[in-house]
Amino acid sequence: MTTASAALPAKNAEQLLKSVFGYEHFRGRQQAIIETVSGGSNALVLMPTGGGKSLCYQVPALMRHGTAVVVSPLIALMRDQVEALTHNGVAAAVLNSSLDAATRQRTEKRLLAGELDLVYVAPERLLRPSMLSLLERIDLALFAIDEAHCVSQWGHDFRPEYLQLDVIARRFPSVPRIALTATADERTRGEIAQRLLPDGGETFIDSFDRPNIRYTVGIKQNARRQLLAFIRSRHAGHSGIVYCFSRKRAEDTARFLADQGFDALPYHAGLDTGTRQAHQDRFIKEDGLIICATIAFGMGIDKPDVRFVAHLDLPKSIESYYQETGRAGRDGLPADAWMVYGLSDVVQIRQLLTQSSAPEAQQKLERERLEALLAYSEHAGCRRPPLLGYLGENHPGECGNCDNCLNPPDTWDATEAARMALSCVYRTGQRFGATHLVDVLLGKDSERVRQHGHDRVSTFGIGRDIDRRTWHSVLRQLLAAGHLQPDPEGHGGLRLSEQCRELLRGEAAIEMRHDPTPAAKTSRKATTPLDVDTESTEWLALKTWRLETARAEEVPPYVIFHDATLAAILDARPATLEELATVSGVGEHKLKRYGEQVLEVLAELN
Ligand code: ADP
Ligand code: ZN
């Protein structure tokens, strides 16, 4: 079953999109990018996760003569892509360190014989002199450099081998190059262009908005219970990722969810490689598994049907938040990005920053990224303008698909309360934590309050008209806005910061948000990512068939058909192969391979 491009009749991009991938229309800038690259020019592509980057080089690979070389840093990703391509009848293979010698030699032979449309290569293998000279002996369609931001020494995914990829431009100057990434910032973009496209190329920037993701930020009361309510009400039976700050918390959360009857597994750097790999494999191959993870999890996971990403703790920065939440809903169907955080998270993260030993310039950058995240979290308007604003994109707001758009929060004039709180911090010596401060404000007659003589300070009991929860909310918002800061010793004490002066003196006013009540959140309707009844016999029958087929072929279910394709099949209820061929996501190869089986499953239901 080899259909190297030489054997295919020359086809245009739209025809290939339909016949090979089964899709009707290009998305966003795909078509323009494909025209550029298939015409022999270079391209730099910035697209969000799930935007459809792969087609931007896969289609030109089939249009142009020769083999396309795809450089990718992640073995799991290469494997997934090759499986998906093979299932669409494209001749593709992998060359990386995971192969045994015999398989590698066989692949190299196919490459030399011109039998491959695409070959996925790890950067360290590409850089070997033997590999480079092999490539010089064959016809090359193009080079695609995926995850191109790995070239940035300042970025979080820096890979030294990526720096040496400049050899491609030197050794193969006449072969078009396409560099792709989901990291948008300008500096990274410049570095990619300089290293990988020194001879120039057109830049394509797509919007980084992910309209199908619903952003929700709640205030932590009992994080696990809130998480449970969220999953129960909106994502029972769905695949999801829960991000936690520490390994222990990832473990505990996985156990808690498992006790509640969910399929949940931990993933963090403290587990041995075998266990980690096994958990990741199950997440990819099974439906409805929840992974409770530290940030060690995620890079290279391109499971399309992750329905939610939850944060039980604040991420490191707004960038990490965007990256991590971006793993939800790659397939374009509705998905949730849900987070809870509280005062202690803000204290903890601010604390980490003050203890950082990084150079001053780096610390400043980290502080700014954290400030942006806090501002985003406390924001009372649409979540999209502050989120995308950070990525340099203007969004008009009123997206209709975030918590604040769906349930606009009330605000109140908190000037007086803020003054009381700040002066209470001052009067008690700027070294006590939130719980104690609130005790004093409420005039609580406790051992600890008396022991410190705080029943005699002027702020004792001045805040009785406001309840405990609201006081916590006031302190959190003062901290998030930078009017308060944690003490540098790390005991959780709060101090005044320079900028609170005007507030304290009554020369400035402050509006605060009423925290949402947890009950309001759980009452929302469940997400129905697909327009099908997911409890129906028809749906379950198709899913069972898909799972059995996937198991037999040892691939993830979405390699057989995506959820959206299954739903489209149900909707169309085709009775013949011709009808099935018109369904989005059914290409010629899959039609031949699975068409009869799908029709049989459907026929049995009638
Ligand atoms: P990225 O690499 O940018 O994260 P992918 O290339 O993995 O995104 O594509 C994301 C999903 O969108 C995949 O499931 C892919 O099949 C689908 N997709 C891409 N382009 C189209 C299109 N033109 N029509 C329909 N689905 C598409
Ligand atoms: Zn909104």
Can you offer a commentary on this structure?
This protein has 4 domains: 4-205, P-loop containing nucleotide triphosphate hydrolases (Rossmann fold, 3-Layer(aba) Sandwich), CATH 3.40.50.300; 213-404, Rossmann fold, CATH 3.40.50.300; 411-513, Arc Repressor Mutant, subunit A; 537-605, DNA polymerase, domain 1, CATH 1.10.150.80. 46% of the residues lie in helices and 13% in strands. Strand 3, helix 5 (101-112) and strand 4 (118-121) form a beta-alpha-beta unit. Strands 3-4-2-5-6-1-7 form a 7-stranded parallel beta sheet, with helices on both faces. Strands 8-13-12-9-11-10 form a 6-stranded parallel beta sheet, sandwiched between helices. The model is unreliable at 1-9 and 520-524 (pLDDT under 50). Helix 2 (30-38) packs parallel to helix 3, helix 20 (434-442) packs across helix 22 (468-480) and helix 25 packs across helix 29. The chain has 606 residues and is α/β, with parallel strands linked by helices. Bound molecules: adenosine-5'-diphosphate and zinc ion. The site of adenosine-5'-diphosphate has 18 residues, from helix 3.
Summarize the structure.
The chain has about 600 residues and is α/β, with parallel strands linked by helices. It has 29 helices and 17 strands. It is globular and about 90 Å long.
Layout: helices, strands, pairs:
Layout: H1 13-21, H2 30-38, E1 43-46, H3 53-63, E2 67-71, H4 75-87, E3 92-95, H5 101-112, E4 118-121, H6 123-126, H7 129-136, E5 140-145, H8 160-163, H9 166-171, E6 177-181, H10 186-196, E7 202-205, E8 213-219, H11 223-234, E9 239-243, H12 247-259, E10 264-267, H13 273-285, E11 290-293, E12 306-311, H14 318-325, E13 335-341, H15 343-355, H16 360-378, H17 384-390, H18 403-406, E14 411-413, H19 415-427, H20 434-442, H21 447-451, H22 468-480, E15 484-486, E16 494-496, H23 501-504, E17 511-513, H24 518-522, H25 537-553, H26 557-560, H27 563-572, H28 577-581, H29 588-605
Parallel strand pairs: 1-6, 1-7, 2-4, 2-5, 3-4, 5-6, 8-13, 9-11, 9-12, 10-11, 12-13
Antiparallel strand pairs: 14-17, 15-16
Helix pairs in contact: 2-3, 15-16, 15-22, 19-20, 20-22, 25-29
